[in-house]
Design a protein that fits this description.
5% strand, 16 helices, 410 residues, Receptor-associated Protein, single chain, 3 strands
């Protein structure tokens, strides 16, 4: 089969091409013998009809991660018990409900029964099994330690799922509060403020500037709500389209790191992701340049992709990788020092995983504290919004009451 690959040569330059091999593992071995460090290798025909069918089976991000974590753990348990790989996949197929994920397992089983390796079978489902996952499976197949790799992958995916769930769970309540606040403000504009407008016209009372402004906003919102919604939708679409461009992504990744408090959280999560993935890959004896190429694809932020690219450049020139992690604005000095110590002691993979575990625990605490800050801030803003509207509407009535009492007293 023909395999399209992306690799790095000894100088760190990117090399792409096509190699003819029986499967992915053989193709990777052929490229390694040529002195290339493979970042990604997939079937050359993957861009044709087969890939189109794969896109139809695409799952949501959270469901996909949950399924892959379950698949990895269950497959590890079955193979560990002595079940043959094809039989294990068939057992997983039987206990999976009909749907996209079951079709993926069926596809994997069919390819394995045809004689393909598991990593080669996963190439057709690259949206579920990323390059790091496939590389670890391939390394396990080549070294005869597939069980160990499945165990590591199951732990890695379960950790990623736990982190994602904690972040989503922390954001649910603030999002609910924001939605409720928006609905309340819209109802005030549509139903409450117009009644005050009719009352003010009946009383013929002079209106302060703030009240007139609020009545104008209400009138515009009621008369042109459809245009406002179209403008908001258009603005969101334009922003999303811009963020998908290289310049937009660079601006987003740089800006989010500068947001107070949020930037620190993103830096911590990005660092944890990089050191965790790099530690797992190095522990699996993936060549350093190849591991750095894979981590770069999964960094999630262009600034951190740049750090990993610099690390690959340093390694290709025979210099310490830790030098690339010396940027204190992105990487904590303690993390840099730990990486440097790991390189000197020859236990870099173990230290990277220890750093990742520490950062993950710290990030969970930070997420909880961030939630405890966001929630009262949103409640305060909602209260201020309702308070401002109330004051603007009742201020003319207060003035009218004061004028009436003043006239009666005179």
């Amino acid at each position: 089969m023909k395999l399209a690959y992306t690799a790095y040569d000894g100088s760190g330059k990117t090399v792409t091409g096509v190699v003819d091999a029986a499967d992915t593992s053989t193709g990777m071995d052929m490229l390694r013998r040529k002195g290339l460090y493979v970042a990604e290798i997939v079937a050359a025909a993957a861009s044709g009809p087969r890939n189109a069918r794969t896109r139809k089976r695409r799952l949501s991000g959270n469901q996909r991660l949950k399924n892959v974590a379950w698949f990895s753990r269950q497959l590890h348990v079955l193979v560990c018990s002595g079940t043959q790989l094809a039989d294990a996949l068939h057992a997983l197929e039987r206990q999976t409900r009909p749907g996209p994920w079951r079709q993926i397992i069926v596809g994997l089983r069919t390819r394995v029964e045809e004689g393909a390796s598991l990593s080669a079978a996963m190439e057709s489902y690259s949206d579920c099994f990323d390059p790091i996952y496939r590389s670890l499976i391939s390394a396990g197949e080549s070294s005869g330690h597939l069980l160990e790799m499945l165990d590591r992958l199951a732990s890695l995916k379960q950790k990623q799922l736990r982190i994602r769930n904690s972040v989503v769970g922390a954001l649910i309540y603030p999002c609910m509060l924001t939605t409720v606040g928006t609905i309340i403000f819209s109802m005030l504009l549509v139903f409450v403020i117009p009644r005050f407008s009719g009352l003010f016209q009946t009383l013929n009372v002079p209106l302060p500037g703030s009240t007139r402004a609020m009545l104008t906003v209400s009138s515009i919102f009621r008369g042109y709500w459809w245009l406002i919604l179209l403008l908001i939708a258009g603005l969101i679409a334009a922003v999303v389209a811009y963020l998908r461009t290289p310049g937009g992504r660079a601006a987003r990744d740089t800006a989010i790191l500068r947001v107070p408090y949020i930037g620190r959280v993103v830096r911590s999560f990005s660092t944890a992701r990089i050191v965790s993935l790099l530690g797992v890959l190095m522990q699996a004896h993936i060549p350093v340049l190849e591991a750095l190429g894979l981590v770069r694809q999964s960094a999630g932020n262009l600034r951190y992709e740049g750090i990993v690219a610099k690390a690959a450049d340093f390694v290709s020139r025979g210099e310490p990788m830790s030098t690339a992690f010396a940027d204190a604005s992105l990487i904590s000095p303690s993390v840099h020092e730990a990486i440097r110590s790991g390189e000197e002691s020859g236990e870099l993979d173990r230290l990277l995983l220890n750093i990742a575990s520490f950062l993950d625990e710290e990030n969970e605490v930070v997420i909880r504290s961030l939630t405890s800050i966001i929630e009262p801030v949103i409640l305060i803003l909602m209260g201020l919004l309702v308070g401002v509207v109330s004051i603007c509407m009742f201020l003319p009535l207060f003035d009218l009451t004061a004028m009436t009492q003043g006239g009666g007293g005179g």
